[in-house]
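Q: Protein A?
A:
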Amino acid sequence: MATTTGTPGATAKNPAGALTDIPGLRVGHATRTGDGYLTGTTVVLAPPGGVITAVDVRGGGPGTKETDALDPRNLVQRIEAIVLTGGSAYGLDAATGVMAWLEEQGRGVPVDPSDPARVVPVVPAAAVFDLGRGGDFTARPDAETGRAAVLEAARSEAGAPVAEGSVGAGTGALVGRIRGGVGTASTVLPSGITVAALVVANAAGSGVDPRTGVLYGRYFEDPGDVLGAPALPAHPSPEAHAAATRRLADLAAANGPAPLNTTLAVVATDADLNRAQAQKLAGTSHDGMARAVRPVHLLNDGDTVFAQATGERPLAEGNPLALNEILAAGADLVTRAIVRAILAAGSARTPGGTFPSYGDLYGDI
């Protein structure tokens, strides 16, 4: 069920290039394929005691759990884990397995001063729609899947690479008619603050420019930041683009209705943000989705961004605009992580359909 393989999203400024570049954060995947399954769960595990967490939901059809607890006006201050999962609303059951594990560790909101073991873990979760893509509409993540993902996160080393592509919550993901998946990226800002993102790209909209075949997000790459990136993105040949377009049209007729939502993201920083600042980061990071997927934030999308701050590095004193560089980086990294998710995904053929990867359609460009 669980998987640990993948390719880290390296950048010139940060050789690991993953959400785990934020000290204390760990990522675990549980992947379920075969026997009607094409789905999974991804868990972002905070250090004991949790971290400041916020959320911004902009899709019109979200499948979420415990997001109200993240409102800065409400009680819960710190979160121990976030669950990203396949299975639409059914898959939110994966959070139950994560809650059970956290309770066993004594991690959660204390509710009885006389007994520290009495805690209630608040585990925010969000789901993508991948129902039936493995062939069985009822094959979904459950509490066991969530437990497997959090156990993998807990076993991982600090700063470990994060598996990308068709793993975890991205196993059954599609972006338009091509495979989506999990992607991650990070950067170190001039201030020394680190910002990172992890996405599950599973959008009703397309990630591909229909005029050229170039991934939308590649138009926003900084050649000084991404290892090996050219000044402008490479374009497929007109012949390759025409062939890919024909193949996608043929598969659309065979696969049936257009794919449904959602893109999810966790954007994190080691900066010392309060809950309101973290919520602002979650909101502006949605701009990164809009650069990489068109259209976005529709009624049948559930686009959701979580933001986390571990508080290791203070913002510059006396500068009311010090947050701006973090806000801009969050959006940039979501775009980059979506590109990485699409490029890392593999093709799949199941009883539920044939889902080509961008690499299989366009080759290595």
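Q: Protein B?
A:
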Amino acid sequence: MPTDHTRTLIPVDAVTHETYDWAPRAPQMFSRAEVERQTGPYEATVTAPIANWSPVISGDELANIEDATRQLVEFDKHAQSKLGSDSPALGPMTAILLRTESASSSQIEQLTTSAKQLALAEIDEGDKANALTVIGNVRAMEAALRLADDISAESILAMHEALMLHQSGFDPIAAGRFREEQVWIGPGEAGPRVADFVAPHHDRIPGAIEDLVSFIDREDLPVLVQVAVAHAQFETIHPFPDGNGRTGRALAQSILRNKELVGSTAVPISAGLLVHTERYFDALGAYRAGDAGPIVREFVAASLIASATGTELVDDLVVQLEESRAKMSGIRADATAWKILPTLVGQPAVTTKYLKQVLGLGEMAALRALETLTERGVLTETTGWSRNRVWQHAGIFEVLDGYAAKIRRMSSR
């Protein structure tokens, strides 16, 4: 699908600005020149209300939106058809797609980690700071899907809390609370006067979020338009001191689930946005200037990428599941090893402690099953220790690493 941003506008009211005075809070920490530069009036953004916005969209644009919507629905159906709606592997498949989406969303914010580091962090075996931070994004995405039936200010706060409680150095008291200070993006250490973007004054946040929730509640808009515009509006409100981008992309997942566009899986839309990160940020700027077209087209393009690459990812993971089943031929049907196998799709690194917690297995039952899976070549014990042992499914990690490499190749074109 072409993504030329010079195409027809989708008009939306542009942001306006209001003037406040600024004085650096700790002038002794900055040079005299910086203090002087950052003392005086500044312009804070004022978001235009969108609750009653009526989009004007060309026929060609609507056709592209409908095509991307259809492909997202097909992707969701494909996952169900490959696994079966009652398959014990469908939940883990959703988990791994959600983790993939979380990793891509975090990468947009320059937080990178590998599938293996992320899986180890899930079982408290990793010590990579970025992986631990991305786990917070996974928790935010989980909250987004769990709370999708009722999107509200409270559910948005819950997403942010789940995200930031895992971020090192962030004040836990501020997690899940709207900011009570002015924030900005771009230059200016001591103040916002020369910043690229100055977020709305914090007194405006509750009203702006209430307007946003009213917009999300509407049922008379194309869902992808609703997702894209709600995301852009959220990013413009910038209601938190940190974590706005990741919370905003979790909100996009919540809206997709709320509108029942997808139901069985998570959609790796952030992977699509990651392919053209600079264009995504430019589209947010265009939205603030009065054109929703670019951000809608970015979400349409991202949805097409998500559907295509997500389908391949599901297929490749199913192949790994089937190959593992073939290796387990002859093991009796009620063996504990069969209970563990679907779990590996969503968590390809496990310990006995993890299996006890997730599957309710006893220590010896878990250990015997893991030894059986190792003997059959499904798993590999990677530590070589007698205690605190970790078993991994190499094939699933290869698939996940291949997916990440594919997205990187697409983004470098």
